[in-house]
Amino acid sequence: METIKVGMADLNIIENNGVLVTLGLGSCVGVALYDKRKKMAGLAHVMLPSSKEIKNNSNKAKFADSGIEVLVSKMEQLGADKRYIVAKLAGGAQMFKFNSRADVLKIGERNVIAVKSKLKNLGIKVISEDTGGNFGRTIEFSSNDGSLLIKTIGYGIKTI
Amino acid sequence: MTIDINNLNNDFLDVFKELGNIGAGNAATALSQILNDKVNMDIPQVRLLNFSDVDRMLGGPENPVVGIYFAMGGDAVGNMMFILDLDSAKNLVELLLNKEKDSCKLDDLEISALSEIGNIIASSYINSLSQLTNLNLKISIPSISIDMAAAILSVPAIQFSYISDKVLFIETEFKEQNKYITGNLFLIPDINSFEIIFDSLGV
To answer: In terms of Cα–Cα distance, which of A93, A123, A126, A113 is closest to A49?
Structure first.
């Protein structure tokens, strides 16, 4: 079985019994897209909500808006159909608690909101998620059945 | 002046190295006063890493580490983070509380002690930066988290991601007798503050 690692500000696609893995998601969000008919899985590891907020936006995979757009169009190029793609989300944690500068530290929450809004725009349904909290997550996304395995330190293991 | 973090030249890195040097020197002095023992330090390493390489640090992405986070305010705004691997955290706790621990599991008192040390180390760095630049700089109270290295590192990485596709960090190693304590410090000024700091240093 093929395994591909998806790092920070990166995205990838796998078909036919493969696994996409991201180790230690913190405030970033793992956007897992699945086309059941093609058994095609795509994973984007986004760091920031919007490519329109900042100038340094050449790396499309870094942002929720442009990252999801690129991932969906790449999946479509490989034969996926947007109407059959569903989404699962993980990550978006707030790793540190603080009173001041809340906007900076709530980046995880803002990332999740931005991801959902982009998916809604594209007409892609979020069927399950494990987001928020204050802990890191390792995720394994299977193209065989679209299952998303989530591992944590001290918060258990689950599949969504 | 516009700073391009992706193409920082050696002068800029030297500035950070020097800053790391002075900061770590102050931190070592502070540590040795608290521990009432001699603390040595290595020359800090200053590195500029791609996002894709960030999670290879600190013993791998899923390795549990201790992160202590501060907000920086005053004339320059930004964030600061001090990260220790669990072995170093354990060594530090043993030295601070003068006991031997069988495991790396930390209780509330130990976590609080680590926060305080993080505070002292971060303050040492900030004070040296403040003196070097003549800027008024201060840090917030610490916030601590123990979790996977990549998850902890996502916080400074996201901060850098606003301005760059790279992460700048200063690695410092302290040694007290036989116990090594390796710490990684991330100093993350906001983009405008980067320029304020470099300007005030005349770089």
So the answer is: A113
